[in-house]
Every structure is written in C-alpha cells, then in structure tokens.
Specification:
The protein is mainly alpha-helical. It contains 20 helices and 5 strands. It has a 3-stranded mixed sheet with strand order 1-3-2, with helices on one face. It has a two-stranded parallel sheet with strand order 4-5. A hairpin with a 2-residue loop joins strand 2 and strand 3. Keywords: Membrane, Transmembrane, Transmembrane helix.
C-alpha cells in the first residue's frame, strides 16, 4: 500500500532504490588497509604541466590502458610473462588464479571506479605485475636480457620508461607485485627482495641512490609512496598544538648571501637535513636531472590527494624560495648543493619556480617554517640589512662602472676633474683673500 501523498509508482521506485543502495552498503569494504591510494591527478596541477603526469611509453595499471600510443608495449609484456613462466617453471594457470583471487581487493587501491570486468582487470594486473618484476630483474642481472633489448639500450626509451614508473596514475599496488614475486625461485634471488630491486631501479631519481631503505619503505602501497617514504624526514616534525596563522617565505640564496649568510653542502643526503647555525646555512646536495620535475610533481600530487604529510611539498616551497633566478642556481651549484645535470642554470630556476603553481599548503604543515623565520630574523637585523645594501651597491658599481676598462677610465676622469675643480675653486678663494 502506498504511503500518504505518494503514488504507487513512486513507492515502487523508493523500494527499488532502497534495495540497490542497501546492496551497495553490504558490499562496501570495511577493510581500511585497502583504502584508495592511487589517484587521478587533479585538474589544476595537471594543466600546469600535462606531460609530467602522463605516460609516454607504457601503461601500468588500468587508468591509461586505452591510450593508443602505449599499445606497442603490450606485446613486450606478453613476452615478459612467457619468459617469467618458462624461466621459473611457473604454470600460467597458477599466476592467473593468484591475481584473480585478489581482484576485488586490488580494485580498492584505485580511487576511480574501474570499468573492466573481472577477466579484463585480472589480465591487466597480471601482465603489468610480471612486466615490473622482469624489468627489475633485468636491471639487476644483465644476463636475463634478450640480446640487446632496446628498452635498456636506447637512452630515450630508458628515460621515458623511468618517467612512466614515477607517475601517480601509473601505479600497481605493491602487495600484488610482491605476491607475484614470490613465484621467483629463491635460489635465483640470493636473498634479494623486491624492495631492494626497486631501490636500485630508482637510484637516479631524487636522492634515492644515496638514501638507505627504511622500515617505512616496506609498508609502501605503491612506488610513488615508496619514494616518498625513502625521501621523508629522518625525524618527522610534529604538528603544533596551535597552528600558525601564516608563515613568511625566506629570501633567495643570493639575497641571503648579501646579508652575510654562508652556504655549505651537508654530508647527509636526506633532503630535510637542513640547518642554520651561526650564519651558516647547510643543505644536502640534490642532483637535478630529466626526472626531477616528474618526481617532485607526482609526490606533491600524492600528498595533496590525501596523504597525511606535506613534507615534500614543504621542501619544494623552500627550494622555490631560495631559487628565483639563474644567479641563485649558480650560487648553489658553486657550493655543491645543486648538481645540475640539465645543463642550463635557467632550466633549473624555471623548474623550481613552476613546481609549486596551483598547489595549496596549510601553514601548520610547512616543515621549514621555523628555519625560514630564523633566516629572516638574521638577514633583517640592522647590521646584516646594512651589509646587504652595501653588497648590492658594490655590485651595482662593479656592473655599471667597473664592468669594462672604458667605464673605469670615464669614472676616473670624472673623479680627477672633480678634484681639480675643487682645487681651482679653493685657490680662487685664497687669491681673493
């Protein structure tokens, strides 16, 4: 019987919708360990640099599998699966069964709804998981490569492949890769784990090659998070009880130098081991290469999409403060703080000046807030403020008057003329008396 004021048709619709929603609630997972962590990059940062979030060579996972220009790698993935199965004498049925059993859980790592049926999704995860394992093994052991494999021999393909492996949208859950890795003959590995192989594969990204694996790295859900854990602060900063209402950016490297700040390269490789003591700013070195922008952009995107910390974002903000022009890069390169593998210093300056666009950070999450405050207090006290002005004035004189011999001669002549004029005037006054 219909409720008062509701027709029978409306009542039937309500019952139908209630049943559908109830079914969805029943099937909703309550296992928080599989909450989504592989996100679509938001529109604003994507517009700033589309290429930094888009695969060039290979699709990993379901989000970019339909891109036509990436289909050429699908046959290579099949060869990887065949080689893996034959080398370790693993039946294909066992691999398919293993992935199919975890299919529903694997889906929950992705924020997007994946419009693939169970068979299609299982195939994608299996092929891509074995591809990654083969990639890591071939990177580690040259003898596993099939002759001169173009994927490793061609410099541009190697660069594009590493770029694609850094993308937030191009990830597989590490637990499923670890499960497939368990099919590898232990005697072949000699104790080497998947995470050790991943560490070696990403050694040219950020400071990965100089940083040790930590316990957190083994709990990473995908390789973007793996790299984030690898580069995280050794001593995480606790959030203040009373968040700051604002924080002030510090001056650029050249402006700080003008105010008397000295720069030194730290012995440690952790990006967050930055110290300012007695007028000396110590920073770890960072190699800036073809993957630096992709690396930072995708880690920032991961943090902004829901990760609890904003440490990498803080580091990028801090470096953006220090680097405004090529002169700032020249200064940091001179002290070994920046290792410029891009060539042009302007390219490094542009990279850091553009990384933080379209990103919002809460003030209480800024890791270097106290450090920036100390730098500002130091550079703005009367003595260092005067020193900064004197430095700029001296630089202006050098540029405008001592930049070439003719400028110097002109200035000297003007000085001599002024002195002679003063002497002549003085003599005239004495004669009158």
């Amino acid at each position: 019987m219909a409720l008062s004021g509701i027709t029978a048709a409306e009542d039937q619709m309500i019952e139908s919708l209630t049943s559908k929603i109830d079914h969805k609630l029943e099937t909703l997972s309550t296992d928080t360990s599989y909450m989504s962590c592989i996100y679509r990059v938001p529109e604003k940062p994507r517009k700033a640099n589309e290429a930094a979030y888009t695969p060039r060579l290979v699709s990993i996972g379901p989000l970019h599998r339909e891109r036509g220009q990436l289909q050429g790698m699908e046959s290579y993935k099949l060869r990887c699966l065949r080689n893996f199965s034959n080398r370790f004498r693993v039946h294909l049925r066992d691999l398919v069964r293993f992935v199919a059993r975890g299919e529903s859980h694997i889906r929950e790592y992705y924020e997007d709804t994946i419009n693939l049926n169970k068979e299609q999704f299982t195939e994608v995860i299996l092929l891509d998981g074995i591809f990654i394992i083969e990639l890591f093994l071939k990177k580690h052991s040259f003898e596993l490569r099939e002759g001169r494999e173009v994927l490793f021999e061609n410099r541009w393909m190697r660069s594009d492949l590493l770029h694609d492996m850094l993308l937030l949208e191009n990830q597989l859950p590490i637990p499923i890769i670890t499960g497939l890795f368990s099919f590898v003959d232990p005697s072949f590995l000699n104790g080497i784990t998947l995470h050790v192989l991943a560490h070696k594969f990403f050694k040219d990204v950020g400071n990965s090659g100089k940083l040790p694996l930590t316990e957190c790295c083994y709990s990473a859900r995908h390789f973007v998070e793996f790299l984030l854990f690898l580069h995280s602060p050794t001593h995480p900063k606790e959030l203040p009880l009373f968040p700051a209402t604002k924080f002030e950016n510090t001056r650029s490297a050249t402006e700080l130098q003008e105010a008397g700040v000295k720069f030194r390269c730290a012995k440690e490789s952790c990006l967050f081991n930055v110290d300012f003591t007695k007028g000396e700013l110590t920073l770890p070195s960072l190699k800036v290469n073809d993957w630096t922008e992709t690396f930072f952009r995708n880690l920032i995107a991961f943090e902004q999409c829901g990760y609890y910390s904003k440490d990498i974002t803080s580091y990028v903000i801090f470096m953006d403060n220090l680097i405004n022009t090529r002169n700032d890069v020249v200064l940091l390169v001179k002290h070994g703080i920046i290792k410029n593998a891009l060539g042009e210093n302007e390219a490094v300056a542009d990279l850091f000046n553009n990384l933080f666009k379209e990103v919002v950070t809460e003030t209480d999450n800024f890791y270097f807030a106290d450090l920036c405050e100390d730098l500002n207090v130091y550079s703005r006290d009367p003595f260092h403020e005067f020193k900064s002005k004197w430095f700029r004035w001296r630089r202006m004189l050098r540029r405008d008057y001592f930049g070439n011999p003719w400028s110097f001669i002109s200035l000297l002549a003007a000085g001599v003329l002024l002195i002679l004029t003063v002497i002549q005037t003085a003599c005239s006054i004495l004669q009158v008396k």
